[in-house]
Request: fold
Amino acid sequence: MKIKLENSVSLYKAIELVSELVTEVRIKIDDFGLSITAIDPANVAMVHFRIPKSGFSQFESGKEILGVNLDSLKKILRRSSDSVVLEKKENFLEIEMQDRISRKFTLCLMEIEGEEKEMPSLEFSSRIEMNSSDFIDSIEDCAVVDDACSFIIKEGKFIIEARGLNSARSEFSGDEAKINAESCKSKYSLEYLQKFAKASKLSNKTILNFADDHPLRMDIRTDSMELSFLLAPRVETED
Reply:
């Protein structure tokens, strides 16, 4: 297995975001490209990251599963600002950085227990495409007043709202966001949404899919990669 990526910064940023949720992952390499699918230890959130085969300048690989510690990989990738070559050699991943000079690191691969994971296919009643900066600001506003916020579709508008002793509310019409949605409401943890919002900085647009008391799927797409998050709703029961 030997693959080359011209923009190592994009890979580093993605690995950094995935490491917000999990510490060890299986990196899957096959005919479709490189991908990571993982669930956080609390079983509340799921992340799927993919660089398609077309995103690599060199791609020589059959199907490979690389078990890695993300903190170790992140520290190595942080050292590169240009192209990077990943090559599997026995039980090691050799990482060559081709900047002004060529540098090499070796990362010991791990055996990671558990079944291979895939993002589930879910149906959503609402799809919102909005400016990433607006989404980030709305999440940060809500985090000031509570630890969870609601995504609401009401009268054709999309509302992000948090209510504790204090409240915060952002309201978007069809002029500020693309809203294809039915009336619904679902509540989500701001601890996770703040982590997801860091991914929104990679793209101008953030796509949100949700429904009544239903998981949230958030998608970020750039020219070189795709990053998706799934978050369980916070369902409050009455005593």
